[in-house]
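Format notes (please read before filing issues)

Several people have asked whether sequences and structure tokens are stored in separate files. They are not. Every record keeps both together, in the order shown below: the sequence lines, then the token lines. Line labels are part of the format and must not be stripped during preprocessing.
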Amino acid sequence: MATRLVDDAGSFRDPGGRIFTQDERVFRSVMPSAALAYEAARDSGLLRRLVDKDMLVGWEEREPAALMGSHGGARYVLEHPRIPFISYPYEWSFSLHKQAALHHLDVQLEALDGGFALSDATAYNIQFLGNSPVFIDHGSFIPYKDGDIWIGHRQFCMQFLNPLIFWSRFGVAPNHWFRGSLEGIAPEDLAPLLRWRHNLSWTVMAHVTAQAALQTRSLRKGQIAGKPSERHLPRAALKGMLEGLRRYIAGLKLKGGETVWGDYAQDNSYATSEAAAKRAFVSDMVAAAKPGLLFDLGCNSGDYSLAALEAGAGSVVGFDFDYGALERAYARFKGTRSNFLPLWLDAANPSPSQGWAQAERKGLSERSAGADALVALAFIHHIAIGRNVPLDMAVDWIMGMAPVGVIEFPPKADVMVRKLLAQREDIFPDYTEEAFLSHVGERGRIVARKHLSEGGRLLVWYDRRG
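Then the structure lines:
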């Protein structure tokens, strides 16, 4: 028997429709206030063209009365395929954020060619299928009239353009800033950080510096910006603006620089035979568990994510703290259509539930409920020693992410662990293989274990389902 419909806590801002879930199914309501715009976009063929081009998530119309029950009032109910894992902009790498921005502009341009515009420019309307961006909000398309301004311009700058400028110009990831301010980086906050040479760019001057000055002047004078109906932007000018932003963003590059763990896959303590043994161990677990969604904690460049996919995992979400490693992982899988998504994670401070009522954006623990398996290779020492998390708590957190998985335990004699201990006192007497095995055994069944031939590392396959 199907369970009741559950409101998605992140979709309340649009009065034209809401997202609901029922078990594994995802629905969108289209209220009467948004019905005409939806019908126009649907009947024009725009929505179908975008789906056929893999730019928009698919949909099927369902009978509203049969589904909505007491919710009522919906003119249409759309059912969408479930996205394997919902991610947020503050979890994206530079390349993911850049691709999301370009995809949003491509959807805007495609819509404009069809006589439509987007009612907003929120980055949360972009999700990823593997590492390919896809637009998810069918209710954002509204009929366009020549002269209409770009309603979502400031929002696009705050959530796409400004974070990318900040990242590329200063070499500093904006993820912490974005996570603390879910609406992104305002032009008036970014502009004071820019140097004169940055303003030599027309895009920066027009979309950051000038916008910041206008906003500051309006606030100082207590002015209210003119309503959209009072402003005018010819279609050719709007298209030129969108295309100009696309060219500029496409040309942005990440500032170079070495990272601590970015070259880990090439410069580590493994012999080739050990790496092969790890791949085989992971493959055996995946073949037995048959996970639809697998987490790779500490994915680095994606070696074992690839092994999991080849062994039959439906999709893999890789997590890493190192932005350089994530860029390598993204580059490795880009264009392959593999179901692999590399995301940034600070395991000692993962994404929390936040936003309105502390529920609008779900925390990692809530979203991880859909994970069927995990691998945590060369990972646990980073939180147990690098971040002073007691070993039993580290094991508990990792095993709590998925019911079955593989965890690697590197002993203190391992060269990578010695690097962590090189500049600090060893205050970790309980960081031992015996303690690790005891903690795993208390929380689940040890299906198999394997010592690698060199270095003393231990692989453990656990199953907490019994």
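For reference, the curators noted about this record: The chain has three domains: 6-80, 89-251, 272-463. Residues 94-113 form the longest helix (20 residues).
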